[in-house]
Design a protein that fits this description.
heterodimer; A: 564 residues; alpha/beta; Glucose Oxidase, domain 1; Enzyme I, Chain A, domain 2; TIM Barrel; 3 domains; 8-stranded parallel beta barrel; 22 helices; 14% strand; B: 89 residues; alpha+beta; Histidine-containing Protein, Chain: A; 4-stranded antiparallel beta sheet; 4 strands
Chain lengths: 564, 89
């Protein structure tokens, strides 16, 4: 599906962050590898001069970027420049050149030698390997006469295209210059998708066609339906602009509590990950927090944060929300996000290993300290605090957790439903606790046995998958039987169309990135509870995810399409 | 050739910031200074990558070596630097 400049074409990927943008395409170049058939070095002195010149250019480029970078990126870029100028690296390269290796192969071999030494030292040093390989990629690209890889500095507002983006690359993007993101790989629950929607940047993933489009081409992106138009006509741009206006008008409607057209309440809540998020989200029209991820307090630390430090953070978050609810998830760590002070060692299958509550039941000291701090913050503020545990699979785990939480005087205890076992047997599990929250991203990963981080498996990870909806329905049935609320705090809850289906299945609250709340509120207000139930039935009756979504959109108010 | 032996005083070892300070000081001498751990090969003390890869820990003895005019004075100043807990400063 290659498109030359000037040629018009349209193709689709998976829309993961709603919104519309038109702009020139900037292509993130992948890192080149040293060619195997490179000519060997015959004049080592001349080759050495060439490589040193290129390393100097790499260093200058990094220094120029460091000069205008923010506090976070600056030291990383400066360290990169220092590595590029390092005499030890230069000597290693010279040795390989003298042995006859070609230019790029000499650079690669010398860098790998240092990487091996760093990796054997572990910890902090092993992490520097990424920075060093970045320097290598830049030098190799320059030696091959190619542009340096990675996200270029965006000077004009542009749409970014890449095979895939590393979380660090997405995190450095600014909404001022990045109008939209298109990736050929990645999935709906990839970090790119989540970060883009948090930043409010329209994004489409799994759009393989984008790799054939030349840099500088004007591209229109619709992050809701996942449509990409190369060289859009003036009429198409006008249509998209109108759609953007209709969307803005539809979203302008109200800031009240979430409810269906006939007044059935569905609480609209925010997902937050830091105390800073809490301050921002508290200013939005949300009914509280449906998922407060507490990992940020624990990751990148050598020792466990003290009860006092944790209490201060939790108190600040609770105070920000006043009498609005705050649902706190206890630490969700495991082999994929290991803690230095509570690392149980590497595992073959971290997603199926000792993570979440499983780690909490082994390292009770970590769990107890966190609950003690939450109880202290609750006593200090009298806030509507609800504490839940991740990765519950059995009644025994739910009971163990509920006893601990209640013994500390915390008012409400709940569990996350991410493991299909907990959804299937939610009635028994809910007997022990006050509420449940569906983590649809993990629930889908486990229902479909498909790794969330594998872009190639995106087809199995479509949240419209009828099997996932069946599992959600089971969880809601258990909740209804016990008279206990079941909410959703996964990405699915932030989709204005899927939110209707979830409401129809019996979900009582939807928690999402705060930016998604207005569209979901408008969508709910356009449909009755009965319509939602009919949509849920239609979606579950479909044979696949695409048919489920199509069936629901057919039944929905036409305005809903503008919200997507 | 002038040589000196010194025990690393920095509590984190010759790592991160202490390593960076040492490399800057070694470069400033203008001499080809090397550093080696006991029984190990000497590496270029002006290379942050080599010095960090050395992985010299707190309390470990390293050997500094340099040749040229002012080598003795240069090594003395580097020994003085490594004898301090650079991380605490």
């Amino acid at each position: 599906m290659a498109a030359d400049a000037g040629q018009h074409s349209t193709f689709h990927g998976i829309g993961v962050s709603a919104g519309i943008a038109v702009g020139p395409l900037v292509v993130v170049t992948p890192a080149p590898t040293a060619p195997a058939d490179e000519a060997p070095t015959t004049d080592a002195a001349a080759a050495s001069a060439t490589v040193h010149g290129v390393l100097d250019e790499v260093a200058k480029g990094l220094e120029a970027r460091a000069a205008v970078a923010g506090d976070h990126a600056k030291p990383i870029l400066e360290a990169g420049a220092m590595m590029a100028r390092d005499p030890g690296l230069a000597m290693g390269i010279d040795n390989h050149l003298q042995a006859g290796k070609g230019l790029t192969n000499a650079v690669t071999a010398a860098v790998e030698e240092i990487c091996t030494m760093f990796e054997s030292l572990g910890g902090y040093m092993a992490e520097r390997v990424t920075d060093l390989r970045d320097v290598r990629d830049r030098a190799v690209a320059r030696l091959l006469g190619q542009p340096e890889p990675g996200v270029p500095t965006l000077t004009v507002p542009s749409i970014l295209a890449a095979h895939d983006l590393a979380p660090a690359e997405t995190a450095t993007l600014s909404t001022d210059t990045c109008l939209g993101i298109i990736t050929a790989a990645g999935g709906p629950t990839s970090h790119t998708a989540i970060l883009a929607s948090q930043l409010g940047i329209p994004a489409v993933v799994q759009a393989t066609g984008i790799l054939g489009v030349a840099a500088g081409t004007t591209v229109a992106i619709d992050g809701g339906v996942g449509e990409i138009t190369v060289n859009p006509t003036a009429d198409e741009v006008t249509m998209l602009e109108e759609r953007k206006k209709r969307r803005a008008a539809a979203l302008a409607g109200g800031t009240g509590k979430g409810a269906t057209k006939d007044g059935y309440p569905v609480a609209l809540l925010a997902n937050i990950g830091t105390a800073d998020d809490a301050q921002k989200a508290a200013k939005q029209a949300v009914e509280g927090v449906g998922l407060f991820r507490t990992e940020f307090l624990f990751l990148d630390r050598d020792t466990m944060p003290t009860v006092e430090e944790q209490t201060a953070t939790y108190t600040a978050v609770f105070e920000a929300f006043g009498d609005r609810r705050v649902v706190v998830r206890t630490l969700d760590a495991g082999a994929d996000k290991p803690l230095k002070f509570a690392d149980l060692g590497p595992e073959e299958n971290p997603a199926l290993g000792r993570r979440g509550i499983r780690l909490g039941m082994i390292r009770t000291d970590v769990m107890d300290a966190q609950l003690e701090a939450l109880a202290a913050a609750y006593k200090a503020t009298g806030a509507d605090v609800r504490v839940m545990a991740p990765m519950i699979a059995t009644q025994a785990e739910a009971m163990w957790f509920a006893e601990k939480v209640r013994a500390l005087g915390l008012p409400k205890v709940g569990i996350m439903i991410e493991v299909p076992a907990a959804a299937i047997r939610s009635k028994g599990i809910l007997y022990h606790v006050d509420f449940a929250s569906l983590g649809t991203n993990d629930l889908q990963q486990y229902t479909m046995a498909a790794d969330r981080m594998q872009g190639e498996l995106a087809d199995l990870l479509n949240p419209w998958e009828p099997a996932l909806l069946d599992v959600v329905a089971l969880a809601c049935e258990g909740g209804a039987a016990m008279g206990k609320p079941v909410g959703v705090c996964g990405e699915a809850g932030g989709d204005p169309a899927l939110a209707l289906v979830l409401t129809g299945l019996g979900v009582s609250s939807l928690s999402m990135a705060p930016g998604k709340v207005p569209a979901v509120r408008t969508s709910l207000g356009l449909h009755t509870r009965e319509q939602c139930q009919q949509m849920a039935a239609a979606a579950r009756a479909a044979t696949n995810a695409a048919d489920a979504k199509a069936a629901v959109l057919d039944m929905a108010d036409p305005v809903l399409r503008d919200l997507l | 050739m002038a040589t000196r032996q010194v025990s690393i005083a920095s509590s984190v070892g010759l790592h991160a910031r202490p390593a960076s300070l040492f490399v800057q000081a070694a470069t400033a001498t203008g001499l080809p200074v090397t550093i080696a751990k006991e029984g190990g090969n000497p590496v270029d003390a002006r290379s942050i990558l080599m010095v960090m890869a050395l992985g010299a820990k707190h309390g470990e003895t390293v050997t500094l070596a340099a040749e040229g005019e002012g080598a003795d004075a240069a090594l003395d100043s580097l020994v003085e630097l490594l004898s301090r807990d650079l991380d605490a400063e």
